[in-house]
Amino acid sequence: MEGQVHVMFVLINVLGMLLGARGKDYVSAVGDPGMRRDGLRVGFEAWNFCNEVGQEAPEMGSPRAADCFDLSSSSLVHKVSEADNKLGVGKPFPGIKPGALKNPDLYAAEKEKYLGSLCQVEDKPQPWQFWMVMLKNGNYDTNSGLCPENGKKVPPFKPGRFPCFGDGCMNQPILFHQPTQLLEDGTTMTGSFNGTFELDAEVGGGLTSFYEVVWEKKLGVGSWVFKHKLKTSKKYPWLMLYLRADATKGFSGGYHYDTRGMLKTLPESPNFKVRLTLDIKQGGGPKSQFYLVDIGSCWKNDGRQCDGDVLSDVTRYCEMIINPQTAAWCGPTSQKNCPPYHITPKNIKIYRNDTAHFPYGAYHYYCAPGNAQHLEQPVDTCDPYSNPQAQEIVQLLPHPIWADYGYPTKQGDGWEGDGRTWELDVGGLSSRLYFYQDPGTTPARRIWRSIDMGTEIFVSDKDEVAEWSLSDFDVLLT
C-alpha cells in the first residue's frame, strides 16, 4: 500500500507539472477565466440607437444595474442593493460628478462606474468589475436631432431611413431583476435580468418585445451558463443583445464614456485567442446577424488611440456572422461592399478586383468610416448615426479561408442544434484584416477594448425570437 501511495504521489506531481507547463502557454485577460468563479459579477446596460440614454423609462431609474456577490459559508453576500440598481437622474451617490446629476447620458456613465466600485475585485495587473449584458434598441427618431452624424451635431431630418413608430420610439426598457439566489437543493445558483421595451405592456403577455438573460451554476463545479432570449415586435423590429467582456477602465468599443468591465488586460492583435461554448436554440430569423464573436475598439484614422474627441475618434468592429441565411453582400459586381484587399494566413495580399482569387464569400459587408479623407473607391461608408463617433465595420461569414484561425468554414457551422466549444485565433485573424488608415501614418496598435457574443436582429419584418446559451467564455493571451 505504501508503494502504491508513493506511485500515486509521483503521478499527481507529474500531472501537476504538465498542467503547470501548459498553463504558461496562456494567460487569461479576463478577471473570471472561463466564467468559473462562484462569486459572480454581472452588470446590465441598455442604450438607444446612438449609444446614449436620452430619457429614462418611468420608475426604472437609469438603465444600469448589477448583480454581484461573494460566498460565505454557502450563502450569497450581495454587493449591490436594489436601491443602488434603481438609482436615477437627480439621485446622488458617492463619487458622482455634479454636472452629471441631471443629465441622463452622463448619469448612466457615472452610475456604471459606481456599480463597478461596489463589484470590484482586486487583481493583477489591475482590478476588474463584471461581465456586461448589453441591450440596445435600433429605433431612431430622426425628428429628435438626438444622434450626431459621425460625431458632428446635426439638425433633425425627415423620417424614413430608420424604424420608429413615432414620439418616444427610442425609449429605455423596463427592467426586472431576480437577484442571484441559492436554490433549495443547496448546490444551484441562479438569477436573471429581463423585461421589455413596450412601456404599456405586460411581460409575457403576447405580441411585445422581450429580453431575458438567466445565469445558472452549480457551486464549485464548471462554468456559469448564461441563457439568453430576445424577441422583436412591430414597434421594436431592431434589437441587440450581447454578453460583453469590456475594458475595466477607459473607453470600451462603441462608447465615449469611461466604462467598467472584465478585461483586466486589453488583448492586442495578433497575440490572443477567444474560447467559448455556444448553443443556439433559435437563431432569430433571416435578419438575425448572430455574432459568434464581435470585437470592438477605437483608434483614429492617423493610428493614434482614441481620446474622447468624437469628431476624430473611430469605432472599429470585426464581426463573424454565423446565421446561414446571411448572404455575402460583397461580390465581384458589388466591390464597394468589400474591403480593398484580403490578406491570407501566409500574408499574401489579394485585391478585391482580382475576381479569380478574392474570397468574396468570406465577407458579408465592409463599410468605411465616414470621417476618412482618403478612401479608396468604390466604397460604402458606415451608418453615421448609430455610434457617438464614426465607425468602421468588417463583417465576416463562414468560409474555408478562415480555417487556420479556428473559425467556421461552412454555412451552418455552430448554428441551431450544433452547439460546440470554439477556440478562435481572434488575434491572428484581426491582425490581417483591412482597416482604413490615413496614408503615411504609423499603423495603429490593434488593441481590443470589447469582446462580445450575441445577436443583432436587424429590422425584422415579423416578430422573431432568438434563444441561445453561452458558457466557458475566456480571452487567452498567447
Task: Write a compact overview of the structure shown.
The chain has 478 residues and is mostly beta strands. It contains four helices and 20 strands.
Overview of the structural elements:
The chain has one domain. The protein has 4 helices and 20 strands. The chain has helices at about 1-25, 80-85, 105-120, 425-430, and strands at about 25-30, 40-45, 65-70, 75-80, 130-135, 175-180, 190-195, 210-220, 220-230, 240-245, 270-285, 290-300, 315-320, 340-345, 350, 365, 390-395, 420-425, 450-455, 465-475.
Per DSSP E runs of 2 or more residues, the count of β-strands stands at 20
Distance between the termini: 43 Å
Uncertain ranges: 1-23
Query: What percent of residues are in strands?
Result: 25-35%
Number of domains as seen in the coordinates:
1
How are helices and strands ordered from N to C?
Answer: HEEEEHHEEEEEEEEEEEEEEHEE
Widest sheet: strand order?
A: 4-3-2-5-10-19-12-13-17-16
Radius of gyration: 23 Å
Sheet of most strands: 10 strands, mixed
Outline the fold blueprint.
Elements: H1 2-23, E1 27-28, E2 41-47, E3 64-72, E4 75-78, H2 82-85, H3 104-119, E5 131-137, E6 174-182, E7 188-196, E8 210-218, E9 221-231, E10 239-246, E11 272-283, E12 288-298, E13 314-321, E14 341-343, E15 349-351, E16 363-367, E17 390-396, E18 420-424, H4 426-430, E19 450-457, E20 465-477
Task: Throw out a few tags for this protein.
8-stranded antiparallel β-sheet, 4 helices, 478 residues, DUF7705, globular
